[in-house]
């Protein structure tokens, strides 16, 4: 299914199905697609927001996000449904919308307002989520978040946790690919210091390779009493009510880039994808699928369609299957900028 702008004009797309694709969305500045697969998991905990026309009265503001839940989908569900509302209700957002249309506003001011709006949106969405968790006894639910705001000629990327964004651009006639987010892990020096200062502890797993967990200091005592104390593999997240007192934050890192036309493509995805592919492989798959006008799974197996996100996600699942590995939930949003 190819969805033209006239057919999905001024809508925000998000859903709760285990496997789905919205098709390819053609914007005057970019082509975007999204796809999500359950993998070998019993529950789909990934959620996404796909809003090419986020604001009805203008066509130069788009918003995309992926939220990878843990401890059930409640946190990811909630953030999926509230993050845009929290963003547009901030004072910084209102100032940003005024500044972005003024020829007199400098780039530095726009960057400051955009970063503030995203940080306030994450904080306010997390506050609402924690209140809902308290009311509904959802003590263990949490979610990562990686979001992309395209506004005028700016790319604003924010994230908490280990869902990632990667970018591709041309330099000297060759494509360069790299991550533009850094995972928030408990063992990172700055994160570890903050966690310990808050009374939390960082534990290295004896059974899972290279995995560290954030726990509260009373974890073992509570576990011995038969309770179910929470632990988590990242140091920043939405939700995680029980761990907020022990150093878990929901303050996003925000990076801002100017010049959509200077970049070739952008991928945001849950860790189910990035545990399989490096950035160069991921961009090779989606750019070839886009240029050939069909999905090419691992550049060998072909099937009908023109959705690079389907190509990418199914390629990851096929690679896991070929190597006898289970697949996590995988969600990918691919944005390919027009030259």
How do you describe this structure in short?
With 339 residues, this protein is an alpha+beta fold. 30% of the residues lie in helices and 30% in strands. It has eight helices and 19 strands.
What does this structure look like?
The structure is a single chain. The strands form four sheets. The protein has a seven-stranded mixed beta sheet. Strands 4, 5, 6, 7, 8, 14 and 15 form a seven-stranded antiparallel beta sheet that branches. A hairpin with a 2-residue loop joins strand 9 (about 165-170) and strand 10 (about 175-180). Helix content is about 30%, strand content about 30%. The longest helix is centred in the middle third of the chain and has 30 residues, at about 105-135. With about 350 residues, it is an alpha+beta fold. It contains eight helices and 19 strands. It is globular, with a radius of gyration of 20 Å. The protein has helices at about 75-90, 90-100, 105-135, 190-195, 220-225, 270-275, 280-290, 310-320; strands spanning about 1-5, 20-25, 30-35, 45-50, 60-70, 140-145, 145-150, 155-160, 165-170, 175-180, 200-205, 210-215, 230, 240, 255-260, 265-270, 295, 300-305, 330-335. It folds into two domains: about 1-185 and about 250-335, Phosphatase 2c, domain 1 (4-Layer Sandwich); about 190-235, no CATH class.
What's the SSE blueprint?
Elements: E1 2-3, E2 20-26, E3 30-37, E4 46-51, E5 61-70, H1 74-88, H2 91-100, H3 107-136, E6 142-143, E7 145-151, E8 154-160, E9 164-171, E10 174-179, H4 189-197, E11 200-204, E12 212-216, H5 219-224, E13 231-232, E14 238-239, E15 253-258, E16 265-269, H6 271-274, H7 279-292, E17 295-297, E18 301-303, H8 308-322, E19 330-337
Parallel strand pairs: 1-2
Antiparallel strand pairs: 2-3, 3-19, 4-5, 5-6, 5-7, 6-14, 7-8, 8-15, 9-10, 9-16, 11-12, 12-13, 16-19, 17-18
Helix pairs in contact: 1-3, 2-3, 7-8
Domain PPM-type phosphatase: 31-337
InterPro entries: PP2C (IPR015655), PPM-type-like_dom_sf (IPR036457), PPM-type_phosphatase-like_dom (IPR001932)
Protein name: Serine threonine phosphatase 2C containing protein, putative
């Amino acid at each position: 299914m190819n969805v033209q702008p006239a057919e999905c004009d001024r809508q925000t797309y998000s859903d709760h199905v285990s496997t789905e694709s919205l098709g390819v969305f053609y914007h005057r500045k970019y082509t975007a697609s999204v796809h999500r697969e359950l993998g070998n998991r019993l529950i789909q905990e990934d959620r996404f927001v796909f809003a090419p026309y986020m604001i009805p009265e203008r066509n130069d503001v788009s918003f995309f996000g992926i939220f990878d839940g843990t401890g059930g989908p409640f946190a990811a569900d909630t953030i999926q449904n509230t993050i845009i509302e929290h963003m547009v209700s901030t004072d910084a957002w209102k100032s940003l919308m005024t500044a972005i249309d003024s020829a007199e506003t400098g780039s530095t001011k726009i960057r400051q307002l955009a970063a503030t709006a995203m940080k306030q949106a994450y904080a306010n969405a997390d506050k609402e989520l924690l209140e809902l968790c308290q009311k509904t006894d959802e003590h263990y639910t949490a979610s990562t978040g990686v979001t992309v705001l395209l506004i005028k000629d700016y790319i604003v990327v924010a994230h908490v946790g280990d869902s990632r964004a990667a970018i591709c651009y041309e330099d000297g006639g060759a494509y360069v690919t790299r991550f533009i987010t850094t995972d928030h892990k408990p063992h990172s020096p700055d994160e570890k210091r903050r966690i310990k200062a808050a009374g939390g502890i960082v534990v290295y797993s004896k059974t899972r390779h290279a995995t560290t967990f954030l726990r509260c200091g009373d974890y073992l005592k509570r576990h011995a009493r038969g309770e179910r104390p929470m632990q988590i593999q990242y140091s920043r997240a939405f939700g995680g009510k029980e761990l907020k007192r022990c150093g878990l934050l929901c303050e996003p890192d925000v990076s801002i880039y100017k010049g959509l036309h200077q970049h070739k493509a952008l991928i945001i995805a849950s860790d189910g994808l990035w545990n399989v592919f490096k950035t160069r492989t991921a961009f090779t798959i989606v750019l070839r699928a886009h240029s050939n006008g069909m999905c090419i799974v691992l550049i060998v197996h072909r099937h009908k369609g023109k959705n690079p996100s389907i190509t990418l996600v199914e390629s990851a699942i096929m690679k896991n299957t070929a190597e006898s590995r289970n697949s996590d939930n995988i969600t990918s949003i691919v944005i390919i900028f027009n030259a």
